[in-house]
Amino acid sequence: MRRLTLEAIQTIDAIARTGSFSAASASLHKVPSTISYNVGKLEEQMNIVFLSATGRMWR
Asked: Distance between CA 46 and CA 29 in Å, rounded?
């Protein structure tokens, strides 16, 4: 069974709270590419899509 790390949960939470990878990266003191990479790896590992891009908004 795959487990979510605290970092993964914090990343997804920050994106949900702030509404963007950019704002989430600022709140977590990380560069946006790190956030994007972590989300991509998490989606790949869990075989699901957490977020999908629709224009400028993330859902």
From this structure: 25
Pairing assessment for the beta strands 53-54 and 57-58 based on DSSP bridges: antiparallel
Overall number of domains in the chain: 1
The parts of the chain modelled with pLDDT lower than 70 are: 1-2, 51-59
pLDDT computed for residue 56 by the predictor: 52
Is 10 a domain residue? yes
Does some domain include residue 23? Answer: yes
**Does residue 1 sit within a domain?**
no
Residue 58's DSSP bridge partners are 53
3-state secondary structure of 57: strand
Joined tokens for residue 10: 């914090």
- Provide the residue range defining the domain that includes 16: 6-47
Report pTM: 0.76
